Amino acid sequence: MNEGGHVTTSGQALENCGKPAEPPIDLAHLDRQTMGDAALQAEVLGLLDDQLTTVLSTIGDASPEERAALAHGLKGAARGVGAFALAEGADAVERAPDLDDSLRRLDELAQAVLRFIARRRNGTHND
Predict the structure, then answer these.
(1) For residues 59 and 49, what is the distance between their CA atoms, to the nearest angstrom?
(2) CB 70 within 8 A of CB 62
(3) Residue 20 has what DSSP assignment?
(4) C-alpha gyration radius of the chain
(5) Which residues, including other chains, have CB under 8 Å from residue 85's CB and lie 6 or more apart?
(6) Angular region, 75: left φ>0, alpha ψ -120 to 50, beta rest
(7) What count of other Cβ atoms lies within 10 Å of the Cβ of residue 76?
(8) Would you give the distance in Å from CA 89 to the centre of its chain?
(9) Cα–Cα distance between 106 and 36 in angstroms, integer?
(10) CB of 125 within 8 A of CB of 41?
(11) Which of 40, 42, 116, 122 is most buried, judged by most C-beta within 10 A?
(12) What angle do CA 100, 105, 111 make, to 5 degrees?
């Protein structure tokens, strides 16, 4: 675990070895889903941002059944915009809502997506 309280996985370590990390959202997929409409992209990413904020604020204290339901909804939204790693993380929580490791991983993936959305909103993205 690092100073921020987040677990560093071997995949994250590889990403930091000089190779640029893949963005947490597949921009080609997002572009296809929104027919290249930048305003629509901003809107759907804003909706995902809102959903992530809500899920992250409630999932920790939710019952296993509620966690599974929250994760299921997030999985569909994430797939829709091309946040495939986030969708996989949500799927893991949906399948095993009692595993703290799955919840921590979902939080890491969600934070990466939130940072990505914020950078796009602020015009500081490099895609």
Answers:
(1) 15
(2) yes
(3) P
(4) 15
(5) 24, 109, 112
(6) alpha
(7) 10
(8) 8
(9) 28
(10) no
(11) 116
(12) 125
Per-residue pLDDT 10s for the chain (127 aa) are: 333 333 333 344 344 455 567 899 999 999 999 999 999 999 999 999 999 999 999 999 999 999 999 999 999 999 999 999 999 999 999 999 999 999 999 999 999 999 999 999 998 765 4
Yes or no: say if 33 and 88 are a contact pair by the CB < 8 Å rule: no
| DSSP 8-class letter at 96 | -
Among candidates 106, 103, 127, 125, which has minimal Cα distance to 116? 125
Q: Distance (Å, rounded) from C-alpha 18 to C-alpha 94?
A: 34
Instruction: Please give the torsion angle defined by the CA atoms of residues 92, 96, 102 and 103, in that order, rounded to the nearest 10 degrees.
Output: 110
